[in-house]
Design goal:
single chain, 308 residues, alpha/beta, TIM Barrel, 11 helices, 10 strands, oxidoreductase, oxidoreductase activity
Length: 308
């Protein structure tokens, strides 16, 4: 991490801000929240915007970015914009059209990062979650190494500066890393990661291959909600005690813990107070004792079910 600019160098030479703004929201409010909270996030200092085709709000995110460029708040090069390739577009011939559609919606000539949303394919079509007459998802058979080859071509064409993956385990990453003719390694792997699921083995694997781990944007929102099946992370007494010591919130401690591990964090915000507060993550530092205490909280608990 470059502490002065608060960014991390990717394995292709580009830089990614370590704090990003996640734009995921439930479908019924995704567009409204994008228009309401993304401008505020940019105004208070967020420069890394994480979005995806599946979030169904890229047009709104694009409007916000263009308006903030137009009013002089930022220049295009100040914004690091991520989008994601959805499961229904993993067939090689569908990859570039999907990226071009996201670029059109975002009103951008390029994205800074384009990643495969999951190592799992669904039947191509307009539906995000195609299902059969019994309500079961219709899967597709795709070799995502072929998908990766088209992503490499999209990078060469300048449609995206960097390419990466999301929700990959180390074996799936190895499949790409070991494929013949690999031109570009994934620059990142965006996954669920928090003190109750610290992903230490995956983090070590990724670091050994110069792949940055990114904390998924929908995870943070889940953590502040009460889940009847799991403990509420941000009410953990260890986090609370460390937060009190530093005069910060438990959420900031959880985010700071990740940043000090070299992980890029995406803070989801549907509350202006929280959005502004998240910028305080750079105002303090956890001690080695703090880091060990948070690390020891690991329980291998997943709040987000990746098995669609």
């Amino acid at each position: 991490m470059d502490p002065k600019s608060q960014r991390v160098k990717l394995n292709d030479g580009h830089f990614i801000p370590v704090l990003g703004f996640g734009t995921y929201a439930p479908p019924e409010v995704a567009k409204r929240e994008a228009l309401e909270f993304t401008p505020f996030a940019i105004e208070v200092g967020f420069r890394h915007i994480d979005c995806a085709h599946a979030y169904q709000n890229e047009e709104e995110i694009g409007q916000v970015i263009r308006s903030k460029i137009a009013d002089g708040t930022v220049k295009r090069e100040d914004i690091f914009c991520t989008s994601k390739l959805w499961l229904t577009s993993l067939r090689p011939e569908l990859v570039r059209p999907a990226l071009e559609k996201s670029l059109k919606n975002l009103q951008l000539d390029y994205v800074d990062l384009y990643i495969m949303h999951y190592p799992l394919a669904l039947k191509p079509g307009k539906e995000l979650y195609p299902k059969d007459e019994n309500g079961k998802l219709i899967f597709d058979s795709v070799d995502f190494c072929r998908t990766w080859e088209v992503l490499e071509k999209c990078k060469d064409a300048g449609l995206t500066k960097s390419i990466g993956v999301s929700n990959f385990n180390h074996k799936q990453l190895e499949k790409i890393l070991n494929k013949s003719g690999l031109k570009y390694k994934p620059v990142c792997n965006q996954v669920e990661c928090h003190p109750y699921l610290n992903q230490s083995k995956l983090l070590d694997f990724c670091k050994s291959h110069e792949i940055v781990l990114v904390l998924g944007s929908d995870t943070v929102e889940v953590l502040i909600q009460v889940n009847p099946n799991h403990p509420v992370l941000l009410e953990d007494p260890v986090l609370s005690a460390i937060a009190q010591k530093h005069k910060k919130t438990a959420a900031l401690v959880a985010l700071r813990y990740q940043i000090q591990r070299g992980i890029v964090v995406l803070a989801k915000g549907n509350n202006k107070k929280w959005i502004k507060e998240n910028m305080q993550v750079f105002d303090f530092e956890l001690t080695p004792e703090d880091m060990k205490a948070v690390n020891d909280l690991n329980r291998n608990i997943r709040y987000y079910d990746f098995h669609l």
